[in-house]
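Re-running tRNA pseudouridine(55) synthase to confirm reproducibility after the cluster update. Everything else is unchanged from the original entry.
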Amino acid sequence: FLRGRYRKLSRECSQTPWTLRGTDERRTDGSVEEFIKAPVIEIFGVRGECRFSSAGREDVDVRMLGSGRPFLLELVDCLHGSITAASGFGDLPKLVKSRSGGIVEVQDLEICDRTASEKLVEGAEKHQKHYLCVIWVKKSVTKEDIANLNAVRELSIHQRKSQ
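Result of re-run:
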């Protein structure tokens, strides 16, 4: 297993391969999963499966910034099972960034065991989320308006989830 964190810097990149339902037609040119998996498969000489998991997901039009989203790759049947940061995957962040055209970055990479998979799911469930949005208004915003907004302490936002 290989774990790390990814940052998605584009609003036009899906987390996983995205095709039109019932076809092979792609909705995006690449995905975070593909941009990470391809160089990992090369570096480790993966002959079996390479399964991608992450702690949650984001929509295609949402960037993943900050310290990034935790991810895990399960590598099955590797030729180079003993690769470490010192001996090879130190180049992985550069490869992911260059092959994605700079829209996906990886960091905090390390070899781990199967228990990391359970921790990934557990972490996603307990993680506190913080969102930032830009709002446009037609009228001029006054200092009083800002003060009223800043006075709000508990706000519940209900949104319709996409299917």
